[in-house]
Amino acid sequence: MVDGVPGMTPPVPPQWQPPQWQQPSRPGQGPGPGQGPPGQVPPPGYGHAPWVPFEERPTGPIPQVPQFAQQAPQRNNTGLVVGLVLAAVALFGIGTVGAVAASVSANRADEPVDPPIAATTTTTTSDTTAETSTSEETSTSEDLGTEQPVPKLGDNPINIDGNGAVTTPCPLPDFSTDVASQDAFYQAALPCLMQAWEPALQEANLPTDTPRVVTTGDDVDTPCGLRTWDQTALYCPQDNTIYMTARYYSEIEGRSEAGVFLGQFAHEFGHALQRLSGINAAYGSASANAGAETEAGLELTRRSELQATCFEGMTLAALQNGGVSNDLIFPALRDSAARGDENSDVDDHGSIQTNSTWVDQGFSKNEITQCNTWLSPPSDVD
User: Of 278, 290, 255, 322, nearest to 48 (Cα)?
Assistant: First the structure.
């Protein structure tokens, strides 16, 4: 594998042992289409690949994932925070440390988030009903910088050598499959995912606005079209929102492991990263020009989906390095490695082996340039 183009599965660490695959209890169901103006709305799919039950997978080696992730360079503001706190100790004594640390934290919350005119300070609350939970944003406008998405694919500025998702601790609540519990889980995970990726976005001078999350057990109208309860999760770039369809994974796929849901959420967050970088806009234009249902259009969609899956692997690496239990990380990796177009009539997400390779690539390498599917040969995104 050279310059982000995987020719084979990356080397497996010596301590690796094949994980035990879960026997699925119910077959998966492919995602439905998003609808809307060309260049703005994702072509069909724009969620995770269909899950393929064990008995329906092709014969041959079972896709495998490594158990241990590489740490990315810690390009964050830790040094600045430590320096300020030590200065506070020296000048004012221990009693002022808490105030200084709180001030630094508040300043981070005020960083520029959404071009071109105003930054937002975001407060997230959760309004929970029996079937739908959503994060809501309240914003105040301030002067802001010039961070803007750059509509490029393989040469997108996010591709800085050596950058990855930084180590991120993430305390998560107990998981249950009901809508309210799932929503609490995603709301707790979201700031961790942003923390893992903010340094890379900031170094590339890209925006860092946090996506919203809507967790629903019902059909939901989105700017990207209707998403029914029995379809996979969806990221909609129109409103920068991840729509987690809670009942699909628990009832249609019969899943209950928290890690599976975390992996799905991390994949959709990968699409949010594509929007922040401008990859989404460039992909939408290219897809509209090619025709979403043409062979060329489907290849573009596979490149987009597989990059999101690779970003998912990087996110899981950041969380594992931060101390998130392997009881969550391993099921997430196994789930992604078992998804593919073998259980779909549309070749828009890639085969099981291809999905396995890319989530493996992201997790084991944890480098953005290693997830640049746009520079890969067609054989690596089939």
Answer: 255
Taken in order 97, 101, 102, 103, is the CA torsion positive or negative? Answer: positive
CA–CA dist 282, 302 (Å, integer): 14
Burial of 18 (0-12, 13-18, 19+ CB in 10 A): exposed
Other Cβ atoms less than 10 A from the Cβ of 68: the count is: 16
User: Residue 358 is inside which H or E element, if any?
Assistant: helix 352-365
d(CA 130, CA 13): 45
- SS3 for 212-242 is EEEEECCCEEECCEEECCCCCCEEECCCCEE
Cβ neighbours around 147 below 10 Å, total: 22
Per-residue pLDDT of the chain (382 residues; tens, 9 = 90+): 434 444 433 333 323 232 222 222 222 333 332 223 333 344 444 566 666 554 454 444 444 555 666 676 555 443 333 343 334 434 344 343 333 333 333 333 333 323 322 233 333 334 444 466 655 543 333 333 468 999 999 999 999 999 999 999 999 999 999 999 999 999 999 999 999 999 999 999 999 999 999 999 999 999 999 999 999 999 999 999 999 999 999 999 999 999 999 999 999 999 999 999 999 999 999 999 999 999 999 999 999 999 999 999 999 999 999 999 999 999 999 999 999 998 788 899 999 999 999 999 999 999 999 999 999 999 999 9
Give the distance, in angstroms, between the CA of residue 137 and the centroid of all CA atoms in the same chain. Answer: 20
Q: How many CB atoms lie within 10 A of CB 308?
A: 30
Instruction: Classify residue 307 as exposed, middle or buried by CB count within 10 Å of its CB (0-12, 13-18, 19+).
Output: buried
Angle among Cα 79, 80, 82 to the nearest 5 degrees reads: 65
What is the value of pTM for the model shown? 0.72
* Three-class secondary structure of residue 188 per DSSP: helix
The residues, any chain, with a CB within 8 Å of residue 329's CB and separated by 6 or more, are: 259, 316, 319, 320
